[in-house]
Amino acid sequence: MSSSQPYIQSSPATPSRRRKSKFTFRQLHQLQQFSPSNPLRVIAHIDLDAFYAQCEMVRLGVAEDQPLAVQQWQGLIAINYPARKFGLNRHVTTIEAKKLCPDLIMQHVATWKEGEERWAYRDDAFKDMATQKVSLDPYRRESRKILAVIKDSLPAAPIQRVEKASIDEVFLDLSAQIHSVMLERFPELNRPPPYDDPTENLPRPPTTALNWDTDALIDLDEGQKEEEDPDWDDIAMLLGSEIVRRVRAMIREKLKYTCSAGVAKNKMLAKLGSGHNKPNQQTVVRNRAVQQFLSGFKFTKIRNLGGKLGDEVVSAFNTDTVKDLLEVPMDQFKRKIGDDTGAWLYGVARGEDASEVNPRTQIKSMLSAKSFRPSINSMDQAVRWLRIFVADIFSRLVEEGVLENKRKPKTINLHHRQGGQMRSKQAPIPQGKVVSEDILFDLAKNLVAQVVVDGRAWPCANLSLSVGGFEDGVTGNRGIGSFLIRGEEARSIMNSARDTPEQENVRDVTPPGKRRRVDDGIGRFFTPREDSKEESEIDGHRANEPDEEMHENQSKNTPSSEDLYRGGSTPPSAQPQAKESPPLRAARHQTNITSYFCPRCSISLPASAQTEHEDWHFAEDLQAEERNSRPSENNTAHSSGPSRKTQQLPLKRSRGRPAGGGGTKAVDKGQRKLAFG
Ligand code: TTP
Ligand code: CA
Ligand code: CA
């Protein structure tokens, strides 16, 4: 790439001019509909430069030329551009980084710590990998502000179409906006087509210079000349680029962040463009420059080709360059990698990507996880981590509008890893009332208790908790009656009380050592404590908050929940409720008859399992005593006291762990992998 010269129409080398554009009136007007097949389409991708590092710079008021990196335990996860000049990257440890760049500021990410109500920035966090957990809340918050500025700097929907693609990037489909600007600036486009025939070609654009301003323009394809007349697609790109420059300037002005952008005919090219000239620049890939631009890339850099599929393509065709793929005929693609993937890849090599900018991308799940080094060895420890996971997830749920019932998760999942074995438990979240932190905590504890009673729970190397199955709720004030469970919902409670094969996974609480089937269905329901706290309303309408799950935690990396229980019915509560529908009361009554409630695990078990379960607790206690590591106050963790406060225990730093905990270990790769794997 190089030529950022504006094209001047009056160039002496102007070849013979066509009288008409190659684009039709119909294509111009269909720009308003965002059709992915429109040849005039303009897509932008905006990506923040060294995002977490910039967040810290802005927060701390650090000078722009000051090298700064964001630290996570002993590794660096974001490096600002001044620091990159010293050769720093994500593979450098903090010690190496300081050697390479003695002036470097290393700011550790904020962390959650048991016993504290909120995440916080702590200077010594890096020593405490074993007992703390990263919080990305500060970056999510900045991300939301940036998204708001972007949306504010564009015309209102439906002309604006914004998709948040990750914590620091968005796609914009600028087609509709460009359509209206074109009609405004080029009145000849407002005239009806000749013979009222929309398939007629448009007149040529006027002979004005295209001023690409500060854009990095990708060189044209071979055989294309800058001197050739521009057509409307060039004009559309230019207008798109103007819009993006304004959006970037707004972000800079209002929030101080710099970002880079790509402008092209589709998402794939726009994304490649935004990464092409960093930081603080924008790159335009005109339609006539696509092939030239792409041929310089390894296809493994292209969206969806970075992972396993990319590797497969490399071995199937013995190359990793786009250029070589262009030689491969369609039928060979299809033969080697299958019809659909083959056809898709054939298009990708030619710069084709028909995916839409999807403004309705919403959070599908939220996950909070921790890899333990060293492993954890008791229910106590697990429960303390669950408290953190729940606080983390709940704060995100609040942002998502659960308190106003805008959106609501239907299920809660726990994944537990012990050695090479991953186990999952899932339960429905009661749908009759507002989700509270306590409800989630009780559900989570119950799930981990299920893993424990299955046996072989310890040592545990990784725990993760997620909520999913989000549904749009009813907004506005709901009458008290709407919180009662009735009709279909009530019926489904009753149905779910009967044992069905798909439900086994959730309610399989067979005591350790005896993996027999328990036939008592209803008795195995968990029993969320009634939330007495008055939930306050929060402001901020974020109906379209997109999926942020890929950051820190990617549910795709956790075992598929496909085979898990998918029931959406509301489980009955075993606790007295202020308003209770008759079916619920009946269900609860039944629970009392057939089940035994273990106050230590807050879980209902079949009455027949009581003796065995108590024996198992006894054995656990004994073991703990032998280890001499259960201070008496920790027993409160097992009590089912009414207030969550009684269950917030100081984290223990010992229990068979080497001194210094995870602080002396290598970087927490597992978490980073979870983040971006
Ligand atoms: P990126 O956009 O990939 O990188 P960046 O914004 O730091 O730098 P660039 O200027 O090249 O775009 O990621 C966005 C943020 O996500 C990044 O600031 C930190 C976080 N992140 C991780 O925590 N781990 C990772 O492995 C990656 C790639 C990013
Ligand atoms: Ca970035
Ligand atoms: Ca990014």
UniProtKB/TrEMBL annotation:
<keyword id="KW-0808">Transferase</keyword>
<dbReference type="GO" id="GO:0003684">
    <property type="term" value="F:damaged DNA binding"/>
</dbReference>
<keyword id="KW-0539">Nucleus</keyword>
<dbReference type="InterPro" id="IPR043128">
    <property type="entry name" value="Rev_trsase/Diguanyl_cyclase"/>
</dbReference>
<keyword id="KW-0234">DNA repair</keyword>
<dbReference type="GO" id="GO:0005634">
    <property type="term" value="C:nucleus"/>
</dbReference>
<dbReference type="GO" id="GO:0003887">
    <property type="term" value="F:DNA-directed DNA polymerase activity"/>
</dbReference>
<feature type="region of interest" description="Disordered">
    <location>
        <begin position="495"/>
        <end position="586"/>
    </location>
</feature>
<keyword id="KW-0862">Zinc</keyword>
<dbReference type="GO" id="GO:0007064">
    <property type="term" value="P:mitotic sister chromatid cohesion"/>
</dbReference>
<protein>
    <recommendedName>
        <fullName>DNA polymerase eta</fullName>
    </recommendedName>
</protein>
<feature type="compositionally biased region" description="Polar residues">
    <location>
        <begin position="631"/>
        <end position="649"/>
    </location>
</feature>
<dbReference type="Pfam" id="PF00817">
    <property type="entry name" value="IMS"/>
</dbReference>
<keyword id="KW-0227">DNA damage</keyword>
<dbReference type="InterPro" id="IPR052230">
    <property type="entry name" value="DNA_polymerase_eta"/>
</dbReference>
<dbReference type="Pfam" id="PF21704">
    <property type="entry name" value="POLH-Rev1_HhH"/>
</dbReference>
<feature type="compositionally biased region" description="Basic and acidic residues">
    <location>
        <begin position="620"/>
        <end position="630"/>
    </location>
</feature>
<dbReference type="GO" id="GO:0006281">
    <property type="term" value="P:DNA repair"/>
</dbReference>
<dbReference type="Pfam" id="PF18439">
    <property type="entry name" value="zf_UBZ"/>
</dbReference>
<dbReference type="InterPro" id="IPR036775">
    <property type="entry name" value="DNA_pol_Y-fam_lit_finger_sf"/>
</dbReference>
<feature type="domain" description="UmuC">
    <location>
        <begin position="43"/>
        <end position="306"/>
    </location>
</feature>
<dbReference type="InterPro" id="IPR001126">
    <property type="entry name" value="UmuC"/>
</dbReference>
<keyword id="KW-0479">Metal-binding</keyword>
<dbReference type="GO" id="GO:0070987">
    <property type="term" value="P:error-free translesion synthesis"/>
</dbReference>
<keyword id="KW-0863">Zinc-finger</keyword>
<dbReference type="Pfam" id="PF11799">
    <property type="entry name" value="IMS_C"/>
</dbReference>
<dbReference type="GO" id="GO:0042276">
    <property type="term" value="P:error-prone translesion synthesis"/>
</dbReference>
<dbReference type="InterPro" id="IPR041298">
    <property type="entry name" value="UBZ3"/>
</dbReference>
<feature type="region of interest" description="Disordered">
    <location>
        <begin position="620"/>
        <end position="677"/>
    </location>
</feature>
<dbReference type="GO" id="GO:0009314">
    <property type="term" value="P:response to radiation"/>
</dbReference>
<dbReference type="InterPro" id="IPR017961">
    <property type="entry name" value="DNA_pol_Y-fam_little_finger"/>
</dbReference>
<dbReference type="InterPro" id="IPR043502">
    <property type="entry name" value="DNA/RNA_pol_sf"/>
</dbReference>
<dbReference type="GO" id="GO:0035861">
    <property type="term" value="C:site of double-strand break"/>
</dbReference>
<dbReference type="GO" id="GO:0005657">
    <property type="term" value="C:replication fork"/>
</dbReference>
<feature type="region of interest" description="Disordered">
    <location>
        <begin position="189"/>
        <end position="208"/>
    </location>
</feature>
<feature type="compositionally biased region" description="Basic and acidic residues">
    <location>
        <begin position="517"/>
        <end position="532"/>
    </location>
</feature>
<feature type="domain" description="UBZ3-type">
    <location>
        <begin position="591"/>
        <end position="625"/>
    </location>
</feature>
<dbReference type="GO" id="GO:0008270">
    <property type="term" value="F:zinc ion binding"/>
</dbReference>
